[in-house]
Automatic annotation (TrEMBL):
InterPro entries reported in the protein's UniProt record: GLUT, MFS_dom, MFS_sugar_transport-like, MFS_trans_sf, Sugar_transporter_CS
Organism whose genome encodes this protein: Pristionchus mayeri
Pfam family, one: Sugar_tr
Principal location listed in the UniProt entry: membrane
Annotated ranges, domain Major facilitator superfamily (MFS) profile: 18-469
Key word Cell cycle present: no
Subcellular location: Membrane
Keywords, in A-Z order: Membrane, Transmembrane, Transmembrane helix
Name of the protein this chain belongs to: Major facilitator superfamily (MFS) profile domain-containing protein
GO molecular function list: hexose transmembrane transporter activity
Record-annotated membrane-spanning stretches: 18-35, 66-87, 99-124, 130-147, 159-181, 187-209, 278-297, 317-335, 342-363, 375-400, 412-432, 444-463
Topology term for the membrane: Multi-pass membrane protein
Length: 504
């Protein structure tokens, strides 16, 4: 409400400019993160040969699974480290400079991974992925800060969706390039391609201004902040002054809050409703862990279900294209329906898709056409994830916890989620092999790793998760304290930005 009224028609060109800047920064800075996580999926056969060569042809299939799993999943460790580093760096040197450091890291890591191919050094490729994950996290976190702090409140929601959007789109690019009929046969080109957008992302950030909030609040430089506001929002003198006074008010409020009750991790152990909010957030995020093995290995899973390699690559690609489309639809749809209902129903579809995969893969020994159930399952899984499960899980923790503890809750929940993701995703492929060595379908491993935990999460969430869409944080806390008998009626017709204001 606040944002729309202050934007006049003359500022519509400013809005267009800001949306364009946001898209330019997001797609170039996030490119490698999406691309390099997705191409190993479809190009797995070529990487098998590469890895075998770098072990002088001594690699047996089970060792391949362990090593390839380690190479891919080192991502989680790097991303966690990068996330921890990014906050102090961005606070000290600024959001834009932090983004440049992340993007420079992207250039170096893309170059290293490209070098690792002709040098035939598998550990160099693994090291490049570690560096890539650290810099991806730094880029991602500083990008979100920069975009959010430079936009008027009416555009803040859209801006934070850009990062996720860029991730899904570049994921699709990666999976297409990884197909053997595209670049999948040529690892040098496939890995080297990431260098171009990385260099571009480094150059493009250069002329951008530092975030106005950072300049004002951390640097205490009101002149530079005004210049930056003019750059991002075409703000006139009056708008600049309003922005400055609002921002200063915000800090004085924050400052007071910090003095009175500093947010501590231990509050989550002491205060029941904080503990419950955090736990429900972690359970919601747990439902997203099965996407990682699918992003990394869907082609391999399909091949092992006896689907020919070409079709398998095609299905993995199609699944990611569907996912991209679903994310766009999800952005529009998510704010229109009950958060609780939409999350729980799509999570149920998501887990059912895994069950369908296991059943189809197990039955294909007896009925050959059952293997096509696997294709349907992979697509259903991708779509239900991108449409609702993924996006909602990413922000539900923030909605369940009051502002004073929101940032801490979010980072604790993500940290726990990434650690669990690492473990689950790392052991999936090797255990797949192990089960297959007993003559069973390897997909049975989904049952203990993803299906049973998924069902447990859904049951607990169905019982305890309060509705959060358009509900004030005070009422959410009340719902968490009083348990499932207390149901809050959501108010009607609220947009994302109204919600942000209400939630505070
Ligand atoms: C690696 O190459 C050797 C010899 O060509 C072969 O026996 C082995 O199966 C290969 N390993 C993998 C994982 O493909």
């Amino acid at each position: 409400e606040m944002g729309t009224e202050s934007r006049t028609s003359s500022s519509s060109s400013a809005t267009t400019k800001l949306l364009l800047y946001g898209a330019l920064l997001s797609f170039s800075s996030i490119f490698q993160m999406g691309y390099s996580n997705a191409y190993p999926n479809t190009s797995i056969e070529t990487f098998k040969v590469y890895l075998n060569d770098s072990f002088d042809g001594q690699l047996d299939p089970p060792s391949f699974s362990w090593i390839w799993s380690a190479v891919l999943n080192i991502w989680f460790i790097g991303f966690a480290v990068g996330s921890l580093l990014s906050v102090p760096i961005a606070d000290r040197i600024g959001r834009k400079s932090c983004l440049m450091i992340g993007n420079a890291g992207n250039v170096i890591s893309a170059t290293l991974s490209c070098l690792a191919i002709p040098l035939n050094l598998w550990w160099l490729y693994m090291a490049s992925r570690l560096l890539f994950a650290v810099s991806a996290a730094i880029s991602m976190n500083s990008l979100i800060l920069l975009l959010q702090e430079s936009s008027p409140s009416s555009l803040r929601g859209t801006m934070s969706f850009y990062a996720e959007m860029a991730f899904v789109v570049t994921n699709a690019v990666g999976v297409v390039c990884g197909m053997r009929i595209v670049l999948g046969e040529n690892l040098l080109l496939l890995t080297g391609l990431a260098i171009i957008p990385a260099v571009f992302s480094l150059l493009i950030v250069w002329p951008f201004h530092e975030s106005p909030k950072f300049l004002l609040l951390k640097r205490k430089d009101a002149e530079a902040a005004k210049k930056s506001l003019r750059f991002y929002q075409n703000a006139d003198a009056e708008e600049c002054d309003r922005f400055l006074s609002e921002a200063e008010e915000e800090t004085s409020k924050d400052g007071k809050m910090d003095n009175e009750a500093p947010a501590s991790v231990f509050d989550f152990l002491r205060v029941p409703h904080l503990k419950k909010g955090l736990l429900l957030g972690i359970l919601s995020l747990q439902l997203t862990t099965s996407i990682w093995p699918i992003i990394y290995f869907s082609t391999e899973f399909l091949v092992r279900a006896n689907i020919d390699a070409m079709t398998a690559e095609g299905v993995s690609t199609l699944m990611l294209l569907f996912s991209t489309l679903s994310t766009v639809i999800g952005m529009v749809v998510v704010e229109r329906f009950s958060r609780r209902k939409i999350f729980l129903s799509f999570a149920t579809i998501n887990v059912s898709a895994l069950i369908l995969f296991v059943v189809s893969a197990s039955l294909q020994h007896w009925c050959d056409s059952c293997k096509y159930g696997c294709i349907a399952a992979i697509c259903l899984h991708g779509i239900s994830y991108s449409l609702a499960v993924g996006p909602i899980a990413w922000f539900i923790t923030a909605e369940l916890v009051p502002l004073s503890h929101r940032a801490t809750a979010q980072s604790v929940a993500l940290c726990i989620n990434q650690s669990l993701g690492l473990v689950f995703s790392f052991i999936t492929l090797p255990l797949y092999d192990l089960i297959e060595s007993f003559g069973l379908s390897g997909s049975l491993i989904f049952i203990p790793l993803f299906i049973i935990p998924g069902v447990i999460c859904i049951v607990i969430l169905a019982w305890q998760l309060p509705e959060t869409r358009g509900v004030k944080i005070g009422d959410i806390v009340k719902a968490l304290q009083e348990g499932p008998s207390h149901r809050v009626k959501p108010r009607r017709a609220v947009g994302r930005n109204d919600f942000e204001l209400d939630a505070i």
